[in-house]
Description:
alpha+beta
Amino acid sequence: xxxxxxxxxxxxxxxxxxxDDFFPGGSMGNVNRPRFNLCxxxxxxxxxxxxxxLLTDKLKELRKEMIWxxxx
Length: 72
């Protein structure tokens, strides 16, 4: 498992497990896919695709803040 702590106190995790079944596009081919979780600073956990989209939004916000502060 990998963990990324974010400046606002929230964190994001990604983990891979052998045998996690994901069949893209309804195919019969098994693809191991990472599991994503996002935990906000209040301790509420979001998982899966919802976590992916929330993390993307959060990283965009952090990037804007860094650019605004002149740190990027």
